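> forwarded from #structure-qc
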């Protein structure tokens, strides 16, 4: 049964970017980008409902991009649960009368495919202008000669 081809196509142009922060696979920053907030927000709430994040207030990086922090295992589990729900909601009629573990096996493939299609981005530490109030000066920079001998100075 070749059901994998069209299952994950949401009909929208949503891109998921992953930034691996630190060593190991425990700290991931996930960016969900689309053409509008109406496209992006349902994807975030789906991942939130399936346990990818526990932050009920979505953080917007820009006009059309949501950001949240998670772990690799939580994100894969959320992708898998999302795939199971999508199969059950849209394609349950194709599995009527079938026995076995077709839906979980298909959901594992869809979750792995969705993770493969996430684009990896390098981590960039955000700089805020509000943090610049706490900058301390170590010294001063001067552009003067150490002695008063001006014979060798450059002229225009």
């Amino acid at each position: 049964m070749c059901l994998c081809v069209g299952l994950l196509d949401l009909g929208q142009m949503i891109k998921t970017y992953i930034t691996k922060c630190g060593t190991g696979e425990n700290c991931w920053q996930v960016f969900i980008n689309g053409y509008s907030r109406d496209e992006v927000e349902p994807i975030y709430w789906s991942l939130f409902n399936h346990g990818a994040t526990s932050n009920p207030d979505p953080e917007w990086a820009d006009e059309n991009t949501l950001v949240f922090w998670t772990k690799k295992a939580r994100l894969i589990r959320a992708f898998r649960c999302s795939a199971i729900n999508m199969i059950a909601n849209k394609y349950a009629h194709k599995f009527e009368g079938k026995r076995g573990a077709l839906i979980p096996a298909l959901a594992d493939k869809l979750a792995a495919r969705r993770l493969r299609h996430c684009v990896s981005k390098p981590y960039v530490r955000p700089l805020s202008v509000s943090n610049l109030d706490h900058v301390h000066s170590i010294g001063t920079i001067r552009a003067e000669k150490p002695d008063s001998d001006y014979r060798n100075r450059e002229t225009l």
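QC bot note: The longest strand covers residues 15-20. Residues 53 and 115 are 16 Å apart (CA to CA).
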